[in-house]
From TrEMBL:
GO terms for molecular function: DNA-binding transcription factor activity; transcription cis-regulatory region binding. It comes from the Bacteria. Keywords: DNA-binding, Transcription, Transcription regulation. Transmembrane segments: none annotated. Residues 8-60 form the HTH lysR-type domain. This is LysR family transcriptional regulator. Belongs to the LysR transcriptional regulatory family. The lineage of its organism: Bacteria, Pseudomonadati, Pseudomonadota, Alphaproteobacteria, Hyphomicrobiales.
């Protein structure tokens, strides 16, 4: 049985938009038409791709698996259309970027935008593991991550080195100094990103190497939340040096006695590295 391209396109549109109304608007069709196309696909194979509750929809486990495939399928279709439409001149197009830090990617995007003002961008910020996952799922075209990978599907180019630093409120006892040894973190409360973050992975490894056991550990999901938690008095935060911003009663301190350097990498899928938009990004980040 041949799968209906119309049905797959309708399914993908709804999955991407998170609902039939938004998807119908994006595809410029009526909602009943889109619903009928998805229903026909489900009935043809005797499956359920969405759980429908009122006006909201949620992907079933099978639907989630199918979305991974359709993301690759329609990403390839977009690439073909882009090439045929003349995007190799970079006069127009849309680049999706996943990064573990806005500070590490914005300079490159600024250069690309200045050179090719017709391009548009979307930027997703997550932890280093998320960046690689989005790339492999075709949810992003390119990425910047501190997580090194030997996956042959991914092209990786080393960009720069950064360093982890501590930061704290200016009324913290450590604030009277500019440096502090890693041993001083013994029994100190620490605020860190969630597991999957290179910041956390590297810092916890260095604590273990030094035989240091901190006090309470507060785990948060974003860098902004790390900053807010430190400002509230939950402990010492750890962040990339390039990301720290003075102000709001906060001060950074260099941590000595441990190698806290972290490399950053630009990544793309090996099979897509010659796509003009992708190539332009990889060239731009290496110009930093």
């Amino acid at each position: 049985m041949a799968i209906s391209g119309t049905g797959l396109a309708a399914f993908h549109a709804v999955a991407q938009a998170g609902g039939f109304t938004k998807a119908a608007r994006a595809r410029n069709v009526s909602q009943p038409t889109l619903s009928a196309q998805v229903r026909a696909l489900e009935e043809a194979y005797g499956v359920r791709l969405f759980d429908r509750v009122g006006r909201s929809v949620k992907l079933t486990p099978l639907g989630q698996s199918l979305q991974v495939i359709t993301a690759r399928l329609f990403a390839a279709e977009d690439e073909a259309e882009a090439l045929l439409a003349g995007v190799r001149t970079l006069s127009r197009g849309h680049l999706r970027i996943a990064a573990d830090s806005a500070a590490h990617v914005m300079p490159a995007l600024g250069r690309i935008r200045e050179k090719h003002p017709g391009l548009t961008f979307s930027l997703t910020i997550g932890n280093s593991s998320d960046v690689l996952t989005e790339l492999l799922n075709h949810s992003a075209d390119v990425g910047v991550t501190a997580k090194q990978t030997s996956d042959p599907r991914i092209r990786s180019v080393r960009l720069m080195s950064d360093r982890l630093v501590g930061f704290l409120r200016d009324d913290h006892p450590f604030a009277r100094r500019d440096t502090t040894p890693i041993e001083a973190f013994e029994t100190q409360d620490v605020v860190l990103r969630e597991r999957g973050s290179i910041t956390r992975e590297v810092f916890e490894a260095r604590l273990a190497e030094a035989g240091v056991r901190p006090g309470h550990l507060l785990e948060v999901q974003t860098r902004e939340a790390v900053r807010e938690a430190v400002m509230t008095g939950f402990g010492i935060g750890v962040i990339f040096s390039s990301e720290f911003r003075e102000g709001e009663g906060l001060k950074s301190v260099e941590i000595t006695g441990a190698d806290l350097s972290v490399a950053e990498y630009a990544v793309c899928l090996e099979e897509r590295r010659r796509i003009p938009l992708v190539r332009s990004f990889m060239d731009a980040v290496q110009a930093d």
